[in-house]
Each structure stands twice: as C-alpha cells, then as structure tokens.
Design a protein that fits this description.
One of its GO terms (molecular function) is isomerase activity. The chain is α/β, with parallel strands linked by helices and 285 residues long. The protein is built from 10 helices and 10 strands. α4 runs parallel beside α6 and α6 packs across α7.
Length: 285
C-alpha cells in the first residue's frame, strides 16, 4: 500500500506480533539458567527470528523490536548474524525488550538490576537503539517508586555508555497511572525514556490518562484491540489522534495480539493501514 505522506520511519513491528509464527520462546529470567531451552509455547512455529528482518522489509516496515524471550542465543556469533540480517535489508533494531525482572521488589531488585544490566551488551551488539526494562511490579508506594528510580538511574547510565537508550513502559502495578509514571520520569530527569503503550491501561479514563503521558513518549506500542468483530478501529484511531495531539512524533510499533486473523502479518498490516489513515488525516487538517 502506498501512502500520501512519507511514513517510512513511523512504523515498527514487535516480535510479539509474530509469536505464533515464531512458536517457541526462551524464558530468560533473573533466577533462571543463563541459556534456557526452547519452549514451544505457541506451537512449533514456521519462521526463525533471523528471518524476520527480511519479512519486515518485504512488508515495507524498517524497524523491528525484539522480545528477549525470542532470542534463541546470546552468544556473540548469533547476535552478530542477527544484526547482519537486519542491516542487509536496512531494518533498524529499534528496541530490545527485556521481558522479566522487577526493580521495585525489596528482596530481588538488586539481583534483577544486575541481570538487566547484563543485557546491555547484547542490546549494543544487536545495534539496538533502545532497551526497554520493566520498572516494577510492586504497589506504587513511595519506597517502591524510589527503589525503582535508583536502579533505573544506574541502568540508564550504563546503557548510555554503551550507546543504548533505556526506556520504560506504562506497565505493571508500579506504574498504574500518569501520576506514578510522570513522577519516575521527572525523578530521572531525562536519563530514561518512555515507551507508551495503548493497551496496558484498558480501563475507564484510558484516553485521558494516555493523553497525559504520550507527549513524553519516545516510542509507542500501538496495540490494536480486537474482538469477534475484528479491529476496534474507533478505539485505535482515537489513541493515535490523542498521541499526535500530545506531540508524539515517534514510530508506532504495531502490536498484533489476536487470533482474529490467522496470518499475523494480515493483522499487522491492518493496524498499519489504520494508523496511516489517521496520520494522513491529521496531516491534511
């Protein structure tokens, strides 16, 4: 599909959107083994991670986010091959998503921060522009928020030294609303960026709350809401519109998490076309 405005750098795909095509996961955890074995969590799969950059380019999407549990290996040779596969088709590794850990738990935060720090070299070797970590899963007490802020500051400094931008997400119990999220971002004074997610605050007041954070976002997980009737295009368009009105100008990472379309790429491209239509409309206004 061609677009009336240049949107070449406004879309990304997360490997989560292709979790059925990939099939297996490798559950890296702070308390787990260094090299976990593959688990066929979503079936046997029909594609390997190293093939996804080519698929992205074939669909005119040139940014890719990689979930940590989709990495079959962290050895330098595999990581170098994956990076080369992306560079050969001009696909940027936008973000490495670290999918475990909790920086707010008084018993495990130090351990988990050290484990997260161990991923920085992997992110840098992949050529990832960003690394997303989980800020915390504890209830948002002052102590829990402060604990997460301390660890995030240290992680952000280590990541920056490696040329990687650390980002967090409006996700889990520690960051249940704009007040808590904005407190953490303010405390870190620009050292940590925001990946705003459309789907993590599915509740009354969702649009108002997203409008209070998306102006600070550098990245966006644009998760479409699907039902038996298909994509809720009205909800999706409203999320894009409020983000644009708040000043968000970054890429929209297409998050397809539904069985409505058997082929995941069909859902991914439906989301892209919906967002593109909204952006064309607001640009023309």
């Amino acid at each position: 599909m061609s677009f009336a405005i240049d949107l070449a750098d406004r879309f990304a795909v997360s490997t989560w959107s292709l979790h059925r095509a990939l099939g297996g996961i490798y559950p890296y955890r702070p308390d787990g083994v260094e090299t976990p074995t593959r688990q066929p969590a979503y079936g046997e799969g029909v594609v390997e991670l190293i093939d996804l950059p080519r698929q992205c380019a074939e669909h005119d999407i040139f940014r890719l986010e990689i979930c940590s549990f989709h990495l079959p290996s962290r050895v330098s040779s595999y990581v170098a091959d994956l990076r080369s596969a992306a560079e050969e088709v001009d696909v940027k590794v936008q973000t490495l998503l670290i999918e475990d850990g909790d920086l707010s738990d008084p018993e495990t935060a130090r351990r988990d921060a050290k484990w997260m720090a161990g991923w920085i070299d992997t992110a840098a070797a992949l050529g990832a522009e960003n690394m997303r970590v989980i800020a915390g899963k504890a209830q948002p007490s002052d102590a829990a928020l402060h604990r997460a802020e301390i660890h995030l500051r240290q992680l952000a400094e280590e990541a920056a030294d490696a040329g990687v931008r650390l980002v967090i997400e409006n996700w889990f119990d520690l960051l249940p609303g704009p007040a808590e999220l904005n407190r953490v971002l303010d405390a870190l004074n620009g050292k940590v960026g925001l990946n705003g997610d459309f789907g993590n605050w599915e509740r009354a007041g969702k649009y108002e709350d997203l409008a209070k954070i998306m102006g600070r976002a550098e990245l966006c997980h644009a998760k479409g809401r699907y039902s038996a009737a298909g994509l809720d295009a009205e909800d999706y368009a409203r999320c894009v519109e409020l983000s644009d009105a708040a000043g968000y100008r970054g890429p929209f990472t297409l998050i397809y998490d539904s069985q409505y379309h058997e082929d995941e790429w069909t859902g991914i491209l439906e989301e892209r076309d919906c967002i593109a239509g909204v952006l064309q409309k607001v640009t023309a206004a």
